[in-house]
Amino acid sequence: MQFPESGTYIPALMTAAKTGLSAPKVPAEIDFPHRHLLGIQDLSPDEITYLLDLSDSYAEHNRARGGKLDIMRDKTLINLFFEDSTRTRTSFELAGMRLGADVINIAVANSSIKKGETIIDTAMTLNAMHADALAVRHSNAGAVKLLSEKVNCAVINGGDGSHEHPTQALLDALAIRRRKGHLQGLLVALCGDIAHSRVARSNIYLLQTMGARVRVIAPPTLIPPAMERLGVEVFHDMRAGLEDCDIVMMLRLQRERMEGSFVPSVHEYFKFYGLDYDKLQHAKPDALIMHPGPMNRGVEIDSDVADDLDRSLIREQVEMGVAVRMACLDVLTRDRPDTTP
Asked: Rounded to whole angstroms, what are the CA distances from 107 to 42, 82, 84, 154, 187?
């Protein structure tokens, strides 16, 4: 997909020419009033489209081996992950580096935070470092928002408890759009641990905002009460729920957030809710398979299905994660007048 050149786009893009690199083509700039990216619910359809378009340009730039840009030259990104992460933290790190930023990863397990420092004290420490952007993951819903209210830089929610994971929803949408060409009118099934999944919530908000239909499929113990109020269709039978779906997104069991028994056994769970070719045949013949990772093969998805190169978008999801986080860092660290949170 090609985007028009924007003569009003930030001058930093033009500095790529100094090193002989070509800047990525970008969509026409819109007013993006948000200081932080804390959730999908705060974004309008136009703002989501803009972020996806900009992410698309960065995806093409990365595939072309365009090299490091100067978008965030002389700026600093701090990754502050209170929960373990591989994909999200690494992709934020790569995104910052590819934009030319200085990137610092704070090892929470060895920090003052682990020794009992409050999140307010942490904010004061971070302010003293004069960072430009902060990517945060925390086990408690709302903790990232609280931190954003106490720091002077842009904050991106890398996942807070069971609340939201906005950049994951954006990268999922980008992977779908690049393969299907659109989001409007698609029927998407989210299958698995809906009750504990921040990925599910952010995807529900984004997909419905962009005109897709959403189904959730899980045993009753893994569906939150009054789920229908979010406008989704609820199924407890996997085969019925997958009927005519365009996209099948599997979600792992969030055992670290479970207190008590939610499924009889892993074997029993896979039998009824694990994705294999027998269940997948109830979806459309060209239905695409997704998983935000990490995957539990043989629990929520069969290995043959996960590795199906024609139908699986799992590798593309990882690739699009870097592009989406580049776009979010770009937009949120631009020099501009004070804006509303």
From this structure: 30, 8, 10, 20, 40
Residue 257 is predicted with a pLDDT of 46
Return the pLDDT at 200: 97
CB-CB neighbours of 179 under 10 Å: 13
Give one DSSP letter per residue of 302-314, joined into a string: -HHHHT-TTTB-H
Strands 187-191 and 213-217: parallel
Better-scored residue on pLDDT, 220 or 19: 220
Indicate the SS3 state at residue 97: helix
Cβ atoms of residues 157 and 173 within 8 Å? no
* Structure-token match 């993006």, residue found: 32
Please check whether residue 91 is in contact with residue 145, taking contact to mean a CB–CB distance below 8 angstroms.
no
Half-sphere exposure of 93 (CA within 13 A, CB side): 12
The average pLDDT across 218-230 equals 92
CB 244 within 8 A of CB 284: yes
Contacts (Cβ under 8 Å, ≥6 apart) of 99: 68, 69, 70, 71, 72, 326, 329, 330
Task: Answer whether residue 6 shows pLDDT above 60.
Answer: no
Q: Tens digits of per-residue pLDDT, 144-179?
A: 999 999 999 999 999 999 899 999 999 999 999 999
Q: What confidence tens digit (pLDDT) does each residue in 79-102 have?
A: 999 888 889 999 999 999 999 999
Give bridge partners of residue 185 from the DSSP assignment. Answer: none
Closest CA to 7 of 25, 20, 19, 22: 25
The string of DSSP codes covering 189-250 is EEES--TT-HHHHHHHHHHHHTT-EEEEE--GGGS-TTGGGGT-EEES-HHHHHTT-SEEEE
Q: How far apart are CA 172 and CA 140, in angstroms?
A: 23
